[in-house]
Structures are given as structure tokens and as C-alpha cells.
Amino acid sequence: MTYESERNMRNRAVAIGLLSVGLGYGLWRGWEIGLERTWQTVFGSPDLGPVDFTTLERRTTPNDALVCPRAFCPRASPDLEPPDFPVPASRLRALVSQVALSEPGTTLLDTGPEQDRFLVRTRLMRYPDTVVAQVIERDGNRSTLALYSRSQIGSSDFGVNKRRLTRWVEGIEALAAREPS
Description:
Strand content: 15-25%
Low-confidence stretches: none
Number of strands: 5
Number of helices: 3
Structural class: alpha+beta
Order of helices and strands: HEHEEEEH
Radius of gyration: 22 Å
Largest sheet: 5 strands, antiparallel
Strand order of the largest sheet: 1-5-4-3-2
């Protein structure tokens, strides 16, 4: 075999490899988009809307999670009570967004005067979960938050929403601890 024919074979192999990777990526993205459209067609908009934490009542199915100070969510039993963070409310809101958007499959749906709403899609099946975040101002440049994560599809989430909110609170705590006093 000559040097020229070896080079041609190597070039063909590289081209076939690149084409295969591109085709695989295209099929994967098509799968994701197709699933997202299917869920929206069957179940409606994945944005489950804002939440009034003062009147919130938890679902009867185990497919939601709540992080909230008990006094702020008097009608709902939270899974976790958040700490007071040593940062002002405006900074805490930015930290919440930073942690939320650092997670794969998370997008910001809406920013309102009091709440931010995020859409989180599961990795494989692209199930949509809506997470509502509201920052609560405290005295002395301190603040806390309320987070409510709920699944649009299914009656159980196998603890995914609770693990997500726990991870977010831990991430926010770590970032807030690094903030200058």
C-alpha cells in the first residue's frame, strides 16, 4: 500500500467519523425537541405559573418540594426551612439565579417584581418541572428565600424536586458565604 492510498483511507475514516458524530448529535437533539413538543401537546405549557406562598397548599401527590420559612408559608408544610443568608435581598436573588442556571436543562421562564420562575427539564425524558423562587428581605442586610419545585407530569418524582432544592440551597449558601461583609 502506498503512502498516498494510506492517507486517502485515513481521510475517509476521519470524514466518516465526523459525519457519524454529527448525525448522532442531530438525532439526539431531535429526540429532545420531539419529546419536549410531545409533552407540551399532551400536557400543555410546561410553565405552571407563579405561586402565592402565603396561601400555597401542597399537592396530594409526592411530585413537589418546598423550601420556605414556616411563617411565610403558613398553609404548607415545607420539606426544608432555609437559613438566613448574610446578603441583601437583591444580591440573594442574583445568587439564586446563578445557582439555578448553572444546572443542566434549566432556563429562566419569567422574572417578575417578586419572583423568578425557572423551567428544569430532566436529562433523558425531558420532563418539565417549574421552580418558583422568591427572596424575602430580613433586617440588617440579611435575606432568606422560598422555593417551590413541582413536576408537570406524573404523580411521583422519586424525590427529584426535593434533591434539586436541597442542592440549590447548598449552592446558594456556599456562594453567600463567599460574599464580602
